[in-house]
Each structure stands twice: as structure tokens, then as C-alpha cells.
């Protein structure tokens, strides 16, 4: 449908032109992100945008170092090799003119209250934690951000892999907000190529159930 064409403009972009991202466009993209639905209207998100290439390169180095350190804990050689092999995909932001870090903040659920009360068995209380609405808020904001970016002619790539270096990255950039942690990130810039294709999607019949 033509009305939904803006959705299909979004692709996972991993190479970018050496052009800065317009500051006003950054603000518009983040504004669009903040209009995402948010449980209890908590808006438990915070966005850190880095446009300094030296800082982005330093974050790449941090991810590389943490990846090597964590790999040393994997006794299975195949798993260690696979984890190390993901590093190029987890550092694709190294060539981007901007990097957006998306932080998630506190969000209390009924599961938290049940666990605090300590009456219901822990295993049963944890069942109510599965929907994880707090992180759903962050995901909705990230999707808005990426759709807005695509509509403005920019490329992004949803990334969670590098968050194993969340503490080190946050410490390096000097960002701290009580209860917040790095949940996702995306490079941001003008795509280096206009030719993109989607990975095959599962047929609707496989993922859709309509109950009348």
C-alpha cells in the first residue's frame, strides 16, 4: 500500500558516506522517537548522539577489547570462534558519521511488586515479567527513530550486540543517569549505496492468526 511506503524505506545500513548528519534532522529523528507509545507514559528512554569520529572510533576499540575479554571465558572453541566472528557486525558503526545510543530506564511491573512481596513463589512471579513492557517502550522508540531516519534519507542499523560493553561505553562517554542502562544503538548517516534488499520474510500464513 502506498500509504505504508515509508515503512519499506527502512533497511539495515552498514556503510555510509563521509557526510555529517544535519543537526536539525537529528533533533527531528529523536523527537519522532519520543512519540512512540510508552506504557504508563513512562517515556523511560534517553538518547545520546555522538558525532565526534574520534569518540566513535574509541567506542569501536572498547567493543573490540570487551569482545576479546568475554571470549576468553568461553571454554567451547566453536562457540568462542563464533562469538569472535560476530565482531565485524558489532562494530559496523565505525564508519558512520553519527552514533545513537539508546538507554532504557526503570519501569516497575506487577512482577516486581510480586517479587518484592515475597509471598508468591519466585518462579511463578517471574512469569509476569515476560512481557517486559519497559524494554518494549525502548523498542518502539527505536523503530520510530529508524523510520524517521529513512524518511529523511538516512540509514540506520538496529544493534544490541555491542551492549555487552555497555558499562565501558557509558563510562567512556561520561553518561550516567540513575537506573538507566544502554539497551541498543544505531549508526546514523547517508547510505553509501542506494541498492538495498530485504532478507526473505516469512509468509503471512506462517506468522498471522486471525480469530473471528
From TrEMBL:
Coiled-coil ranges (or none): none
Q: Where is the signal peptide?
A: none
Domain Nitroreductase: start-end pairs? 7-189
Checking Gene3D superfamilies in the record gives: NADH Oxidase (3.40.109.10)
Which Pfam families does this UniProt record tie to the protein? Nitroreductase (PF00881)
Recorded protein name is: Nitroreductase family protein
The protein's organism comes out as: Anaeroselena agilis
Amino acid at each position: 500500500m502506498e500509504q505504508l511506503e515509508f515503512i519499506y524505506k527502512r533497511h539495515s545500513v552498514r556503510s555510509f558516506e563521509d557526510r555529517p548528519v544535519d543537526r536539525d534532522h537529528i533533533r527531528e529523528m529523536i523527537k519522532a522517537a519520543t512519540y512512540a507509545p510508552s506504557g504508563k507514559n513512562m517515556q523511560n528512554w534517553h538518547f545520546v548522539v555522538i558525532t565526534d569520529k574520534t569518540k566513535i572510533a574509541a567506542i569501536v576499540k572498547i567493543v573490540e577489547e570487551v569482545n576479546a575479554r568475554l571470549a576468553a571465558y568461553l571454554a567451547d572453541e566453536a562457540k568462542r570462534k563464533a562469538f569472535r566472528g560476530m565482531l565485524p557486525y558489532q562494530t559496523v558503526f565505525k564508519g558512520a558519521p553519527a552514533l545513537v545510543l539508546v538507554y532504557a530506564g526503570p519501569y516497575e511491573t506487577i512482577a516486581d511488586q510480586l517479587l518484592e512481596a515475597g509471598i508468591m513463589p519466585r518462579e511463578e512471579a517471574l512469569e509476569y515479567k515476560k512481557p517486559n513492557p519497559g524494554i518494549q517502550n525502548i523498542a518502539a522508540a527505536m523503530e520510530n527513530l529508524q523510520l524517521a531516519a529513512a524518511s529523511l534519507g538516512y540509514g540506520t542499523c538496529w544493534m544490541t550486540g555491542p551492549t555487552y560493553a555497555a558499562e565501558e561505553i557509558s563510562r567512556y562517554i561520561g553518561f550516567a543517569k540513575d537506573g538507566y542502562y544502554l539497551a541498543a544503538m544505531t549508526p546514523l548517516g547517508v547510505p553509501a549505496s542506494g541498492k538495498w534488499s530485504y532478507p526473505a520474510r516469512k509468509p503471512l500464513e506462517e506468522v498471522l492468526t486471525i480469530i473471528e
